[in-house]
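Writing this down once: the sequence line spells out the residues, with the fold written below as integer tokens. I am pasting one below:
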Amino acid sequence: MKAKNFTRRKFVGTVSASTLGAVAIGSFPAFGATKTSNKLAILGGNPVRQNKSWPDWPYVDKNVMDSIEKTTQSGIWCRIQAKDGTVPTFEKEYARMMGVTRCVAVGSGTQALHTAVEALGLGPGDEVITSPYTDPGTIAAILSARALPVLADIDRYSFQVDPDDVERKITKNTKAIMPVHMMGQPADLDRFLQIARKYNLFLIEDACQAHFAKFRGKMLGSVGDIGCFSHQSSKVISCGEGGSIISNNAELMEQCYTVQNHGTSKFGRTETIGPKYRMNEFEGAILLGQLPTAMERHALRNKNAKYLTSKIKDIPGITPQKLYDGTEEGSFYLYTMNYNKEEYNGIPREKYLKALAAEGVGLSPYIKNGLHREPWVDNIMGRKEYQQMYGKSRLEEFKQDMDCPVCDLVCDEEMIMLWASGPLLGTTADMDDVINALAKVYENRDQLKSI
């Protein structure tokens, strides 16, 4: 990567007035305010950020607490007890906010994806192409339907599944592609829509991290045939566990309802195979309590993320997540960057992150191993049902093609992230701490070899 034109004088001139004021009065040590400010904190210098905390998460306010109390006192604790309970009401409100006609709420993002796969009629003998750089729930949804998850490599800077590799891995048995909107930012949907049309494939959006993110005027999850979300406690709309499915296809959404309701339709007839994935009324109450102010937090995350990116892009060796053309807003479940050790004298990511942590800014990797390096691959290779459904030669080819070198590079060496659901609700001064810690470590990168 070409080195960026970075100087301390130029960079300090770009940070916020609050930061500059702190430097001027000598209370902010990042750029020469004290004798030790040019020494990394891990080696005895003054840290950039001291005695500060990030906004609490999960989000709780009086509205959330009142909603839970009301549900508790009502005795309506299961969605089938009342047509106007918290879960049906959340489904209607979330569908409205997402710009679609229907939503079905379930017990987790994994359950949402599995329900979608089953409702689309995907199963034994079918293949679904997705990303290795994702939560195991993505492939669990495919495996639970006894379909075959085929993994394509990812883009080095967007961390999203690579459309070129997806297209290369399409076979006569491929029935769907499942791009994952990693970190809450849109995957390359222009390409995936093109591929889906070209090969007549379903497009399932794994939008589990991507609530309210927008692509070309549409909310993520509403672009493909069906979209799935997680409401696990770390997500930006959370209820401990929980998930939701959205689409404008009324027939498909009726099938989703039936599948997640142990195969029983709204008419009370048991019509198909299905698990019991119903969201409970307490989860619905928590979600409903958050929705009135959710877009305020969404706007603040986008504001802070835009600010971070505008400054971090000038720091050599640190590249903010690449966003594809058409991206209008992100969810920013995570704020992620690519670390290039060549700009830091070959210092590995582990030492770099230790230095940042000492400065009071804790960043971390995200996914330790791509899913192509996990034992499930050998597990299904040895399963009788998979051998019967796909045949020995296809399974051997499947395993041999399980090579994702870019994903390995990202996992092992390059990706770093700030968990963002809570931290991106901080102040501009909080964002300046992140920026200045990154800048300080770059300025003093020669000291990293002493760690």
